[in-house]
Design a protein that fits this description.
- There is one protein chain.
- By secondary structure, the chain is an alpha+beta fold.
- It has one domain.
- Helix content is about 30%, strand content about 30%.
- It has a five-stranded antiparallel β-sheet with strand order 1-2-3-4-5, covered by helices on one side.
Length: about 80
Amino acid sequence: MPTVFNFFGIRFVFFSNDHEPIHIHAIKGKGRIKEYAVFQVVPKVMLLENNGLKTHELKMVEMVIEENKDIIKENWERFFGQIK
């Protein structure tokens, strides 16, 4: 599970068996995954799934993804390009 970055206690990760379209998992806390959200990154940032993140956390996560969209795409292409 490659971590792209951390921001205010939320890890932004890909799963090694992920699929297109490009998306990212935002996981709150450490250890066992309890609270998370999944956001599509392209063609536009959009919430796909939420499990326990509060509204203000979702807004913050969406802003972070929007501001780092290019970094996320570059990391996705680098990681998944290696395993094809």
